[in-house]
Amino acid sequence: MKLIKAGLSTLKAAQVVNKSEYVESKMTGNADFPTPSPTLVELTAARTNLVAALAAAESGAHAEIAKKNQSVKNLRDLLTKMARYVNSVAGGDVNKAVSSGFELAKTPEPVDKLTAPVELSARMSNYVGRIDLRWDSVRGARMYQVYMCDGDVADGGKWTMVGVSSRTKFEVTDLEANKFFSFRVAALGRIGESPASEIVTAKRPSAADVFGTSDHSSSNRPGVAFPAKVMTGAGCDRGARGRYCVTRSSFHEGEAALSASPTS
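The structure assignment produced for this chain is given below.
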């Protein structure tokens, strides 16, 4: 079990010397580690050699710099082996392990709760009858279940699972024209299913939305899909035919009334 780590990856040569000196002082006479491997004599000798090599390398001579680099590598290797020895002998005892002078290894915290996915958005795609969903990842999630409702979102019986994705996106296809659809997502992990995300609602894109039309007079533009944060107030979004600004919006019990107008 890895309780401590060597902690050498970011240290410069002089810092490796200091690290070794500290570990040597903590391991000397430490009853919890009676037979260190490598021995403290070997560790001290490698540190002494590095100190001398550092001084010699100040001359800038290539040969001395090469010796310094090799000396650093030798001491790093010995400290790494010593850290392995400590982990092996400590037997899972954290207090014993840190008494060696090495720093405690960071262990990932176990995931005991999945949070609801956030930043769910539904956007009109470039394909007739398809809406693209996107959301942020959830720590500990392995898959995501996508749910859809074409009626009252407060009625649990109206929600159906339309797909499962291992990524933070999903394409909902073959949607009926001229209808609003609501979506929510839940994360799946080792411990089960997370709470559902916030709900977003979008209208299925028609052929006119995808291929364009000269009619810009409609105040409720089909196919313009607004993320949750826009659904709650005024804002702007970009549809297939340009940018639309919401001047009035409401979202209540599965109904969405959007007042949108094209802008430049």
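Interim note for the steering committee: The mean pLDDT is 80. The helical segments are 13-27, 40-57, 62-90, 94-98, 207-211, 228-231.
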